[in-house]
Design a protein that fits this description.
GO terms for molecular function: methyltransferase activity. InterPro entries: Put_SAM_MeTrfase, SAM-dependent_MTases_sf. With 700 residues, the chain is an alpha/beta fold. It is 32% helix and 15% strand. It is built from 21 helices and 17 strands. The protein has a seven-stranded mixed beta sheet with strand order 6-5-4-7-8-10-9, with helices on both faces.
């Protein structure tokens, strides 16, 4: 990806037609008199197009009219005065008779229609009319976008220097000025003031990240906002597993000064009752939510065991856990556990981990633990490592003993079973039996949420004080679920619980389509496709390496087929599967397949730092957003993609021909190199393949 990108010919088109559509000069001359007679008449085909395509008349060429031409090239005598008068009389008589017949038929049909129509049929006609009206408005909006919308956009300017690590919706200073209470200033607050349409430049000394797996353990200091003191300071267990070496930061899973992450994960496995962390899969564990993940070393180690760990941490202006974790090629996103629920469905993760994560679980009457319980699957594990849990230190820290008793009692009220406690680490197991909640003593734990309040996938809703997830049809213990990787192929019985009208055959067909698409996509990820230089005979484009990209963002993940196909093809990627709030909620299904993802509104900024993804993919997203009455401009969505995309990163969009052409017109405004690719199996859709160039900020 470090090679320079050559610009090529953008777009192109096919021309179809026949010689019958072309007129010779003599034919056009002979038709002049006839055109004078009929030029005020509207041809039948013109009237049809004027109704179906109201804009077509402005662009339609003047087509020849039919006429009777003799062998000499002159108009025949069928238009002589005598014959014309006779014809006029016959035509007038015919028109009178036809008009009378039409009136009689219209009155008769109207009479019978009035008698036979019922109230229900009138409602159906009204709703049908509304659907046609809405479709017409949508079509007109799309045509307006293509004809004039893009022309009003200007080429985007670069953002100011202080915006190189800009994260919309997470402005602590602004949140304090707006009067948010203490503790909520780090929360996500989106508004119109957070929308920016400028291009975020990387730091002056930014370098392309090292490819996986080297990039997991070594990153460039200049690519992240962190100071040497923050690197060396103590904090989370995994924060201390790093070393500063000139212009690089290296991460180690073991250290002579501290217990290594490998020993730590091995300890957790033994506390659960397993031989080692390699047996997590056999115990039903696949996805883990790591709250306050440090710099991702816990997840990096478990990734080698086929476990997928999602890091979730608060926004930090410097030394960000999320930014460094993503720079290492590991799943992470911004989020806080102060006042809002996670944007995940209930029953989403097999394990939740907190190692000195900074969350005070004993505060706010246990409401934070209730949210952990909501996203934890039945039979799942909650692992907490903190000085608060170290019973040997209670003699010196009486306050810790008090806090520990509060957490322990509340966990019992949630029907959590404490499996083991060693030094600073404790492991609980969530019940898989709903009857446990009914057997609790009165007042010993929070109540169950009613069906009205037990929302499957909340979108940053306020934290609730009742136990959620118990109303879900997805209440299945992790021990009863298929083990990874078989979990990614849901069974017919499992497909029925999502209420989306899907069957196992739909998932199988989706997998076949995506496996074929990924092979085609991957062959396009080469700068050679933009080269103007012809290849020599016999030369073939080199296939991009399996580790060309690492962090992938799927903006409209649907069933997670793109994620599944990438893994099936042996690519060294992880995918953030995003389900738009404007479409069907496929997120529970995606997470149950053993992937990670989040619910998101693409008219708001995505909760991540700039330059965190190597590839952004979206199929059908533009069509989905257009159907929602254009709540935000396409230019804003594309500028947000540019913010998230690393230099020399790739964008692959698939949509209708008209929308792809519209998007291609936007690409130069973002300074992207773009090319439209036809899809052989579908003439109504196109691919737009773009690459973001590497612009460097001049050093001061």
């Amino acid at each position: 990806m470090s090679r320079p990108l050559h610009r090529g010919v953008s777009g192109g088109g096919r021309l179809s037609g026949s010689t019958n559509d072309l007129w010779t000069d003599s034919q056009m001359k002979d038709s002049t008199d006839k055109d004078d007679i009929d030029k005020s008449r509207l041809r039948p085909d013109q009237s049809f197009f004027s109704l179906r395509f109201p804009f077509r008349l402005f662009f339609q060429d003047n087509l020849p009219l039919k006429s009777s031409v003799g062998e000499t090239g002159f108009i025949s005598d069928q238009f002589s005065p005598a014959s014309m008068r006779n014809r006029h009389k016959l035509i007038l008589l015919f028109l009178k008779i036809s008009l009378a017949v039409i009136v009689v038929l219209a009155l008769t049909g109207s009479f019978w229609w009035t008698i036979s129509i019922s109230t229900s049929s009138r409602g159906q006609i009204f709703h049908g009319y509304r659907r046609l009206q809405e479709q017409l408005v949508s079509d007109l909006l799309e045509i307006g976008e293509l004809s004039s919308g893009i022309s009003r956009f200007k080429e985007l300017e670069f953002c100011s220097d202080e915006s190189e690590n800009y994260v919309p919706c997470f402005n602590v200073t602004m949140n304090l000025d707006l009067g948010f209470p203490k503790g909520e200033e780090n929360d996500r607050h989106c508004g119109s003031s957070s929308l920016k349409t400028c291009l975020v430049l990387p730091p002056a000394s930014y370098k392309i990240p090292l490819r996986w797996p080297t990039g997991q353990d070594v990153i460039w200091v200049s690519n992240v906002q962190i100071t040497a003191q923050e690197v060396l300071s103590s904090g989370s267990l995994t924060k201390r597993m790093m070393m500063l070496d000139e212009d690089q930061i290296s991460f180690r899973s073991a250290s002579p000064m501290f217990d290594g992450v490998e020993d730590y994960s091995h300890q957790i496995a033994e506390m659960i009752g397993l031989r080692n962390e390699s047996n997590f899969i056999q115990a039903g564990v696949r996805t883990i939510l790591d709250i306050g993940c440090g710099y991702g070393s816990f997840g990096a180690h478990l990734f080698s065991k086929q476990l997928l760990t999602m890091c979730l941490a608060e926004f930090e202006a410097s030394g960000s856990q999320v930014q460094l974790t993503l720079e290492r090629g590991l799943p992470a996103m911004l989020g806080s556990l102060n006042s809002k629920q996670f944007p995940y469905p209930s029953l989403s993760f097999d394990m939740i981990h907190c190692a000195r994560c900074g969350v005070d679980w004993d505060q706010k009457d246990g409401i934070l633990l209730i949210e952990v319980d909501r996203v934890l699957r039945p039979g799942g594990y909650f692992v907490w490592t903190s000085p608060v849990t170290n019973t040997q230190g209670f003699l010196r820290h009486k306050e810790n003993e008090k806090r520990w008793n509060i957490v322990q009692n509340f966990a019992s009220g949630l029907c959590w079973d404490m499996l083991a406690q060693q030094e600073e680490t404790v492991v609980w197991k969530k019940t898989s039996q709903k009857k446990c909640y009914a057997s609790r003593k009165s007042g010993s734990g929070p109540p169950l949420c009613s069906k009205r309040h037990d929302i499957e996938t909340p979108y940053y809703n306020p934290l609730q004080t009742c136990i959620g997830g118990t109303q879900s049809r997805r209440w299945v213990s992790i021990e009863d679920r298929a083990r990874w990787p078989a979990r990614s192929n849901l069974q017919p019985k499992e497909m029925q619980i999502y209420g989306l009208g899907l069957h196992a055959e739909d998932l199988a067909e989706d997998a076949l389509n995506w496996n074929s698409a990924v092979k085609n996509f991957w062959s396009l990820l080469s700068p050679l496709i933009f080269s103007d230089h012809p290849k020599r005979p016999g030369d073939e484009d080199p296939s991009p390496p399996y580790n060309m990209v690492r962090n992938v963002l799927d903006m409209n993940a649907r069933l997670g087929g793109f994620n599944s196909a990438l893994l099936e093809a042996g690519k060294s990627v992880w995918v953030m599967n995003v389900v738009p709030t404007t479409g069907h909620n496929y997120l529970p299904l995606i997470l149950d397949r053993g992937f990670v993802g989040v619910l998101h509104d693409w008219c708001e900024a995505f909760p991540s730092y700039p330059r965190t993804y190597d590839m952004v993919h979206a199929e059908g997203l533009l069509s989905l957003e257009i159907a929602q009455k254009r709540r935000c401009s396409m230019q804003y969505v594309f500028s947000e993609i540019d913010r998230l995309l690393r230099p020399e990163g790739w964008v692959i969009l698939r949509d209708t021909v008209s929308l792809i052409e519209s998007a291609r017109s936007l690409a130069p405004l973002l300074k992207w190199d773009a090319r439209v690719v036809e899809i052989e199996s579908n003439s109504d859709e196109r691919l737009l393949v773009c690459q973001k160039p590497f612009f460097k900020r001049l050093a001061n």
